[in-house]
Design goal:
The chain is of the alpha/beta class. 40% of the residues lie in helices and 16% in strands. Helix 2 packs parallel to helix 12 and helix 11 packs parallel to helix 13.
Length: 388
Amino acid sequence: MSLIDAVRIEARSAPMSGIEAVANYGRDRAGLIPLWSGEGDMPTPAFISDAAARGLANGETFYTWQAGIPELREAIARYYQRHFGKSFGANEFIVTVGGMQAITMALQVTAGAGDEAVYLAPAWPNFAGAAGVAGVRPVPVLLDMTDNGWSCDVEKIAAAITPRSKVIFVNTPSNPTGWTADRGTLQAILDLARKHDLWIIADEIYALFHYGGSRAASFMDIMVAEDKVLFVNTFSKNWAMTGWRVGWLKTHPSLSRTFENLVQYSSSGVAQFMQRGGIAALNEGDTFIASQVERAHKARDIVCKILGETGKVRFSVPPGAFYLFFAVDGMKDAEAAAFDIVDKVAVGVAPGTAFSAGGEGFLRLCFHRRLDQIEEASHRLAKWIKDQ
């Protein structure tokens, strides 16, 4: 028996990301425009980096609060007051190593081996991957693509619920489709969770990347304090901090001690000097976010116009997030197409097969980049599409 055969099957079965496969293939290509990953092209702003550097210079390199330093948790609470009109105590937030640790801990609290977690697909692959590693069976429920955009049939969620179901994972605005739930859909999902006594893990990290004139609808708009809803979030997207790996989890205050213990037995907390950067992001970053959303809105319109003019692309203009999920007439193998696009027109996109069920026949690109790059990448993609 080889060593790999001795590894726990859940770990051994964790799939390689289809996004990573294409990125590893093309990341060193000269002149390539990389649109495969979910991040912008701007480095972290100086007002954030400088705050972290000051913390480092001041010797903030020791063990710190498991749940996050009080100043950061208070800043997160103020963020929700400004953008969501909600008053929360600082003790309702747990600082995490990126959004992924928040998701992992939320799963640890809500489900275990043999349980099931329902999620909406096509989907960012990391939730299903994390669930599988934990021994939880991820159950996809397909969104519907219509002439009016992507939509969620809540009856499909209801049909997927079994006695083993413990949690519903909802990402809105969505990666990769841009689907954005309206208040009525969120209410229907919440009612379903209440009926079956299920948890909801709400991934609303793109709530401010919404092109409808205000933030996207949130479970916070309709829930009561005792509802079984956990919110996962990250500094990555809003403040150009993907490499920092700092996020947070919003929970009921009665669960704070539980989550602090999970932090203790996993990461033991986020470096204090990095949390100083998070405070600066929250306190001083609203103008930066607004400028990023405005740029992404323009980039979305550019790529949709250029690809749409080929007459060979099917997509829904995304109302939120910063991705275009599109199908190309005649494309039979999305993974092969992604590699071919790297080779022939030097643009990096992700195959739809990386995004779980329902992604077959699609490609995803991230348009959160400089407008001149998005225009150039769109023209290159249009050339590849026309040649098919």
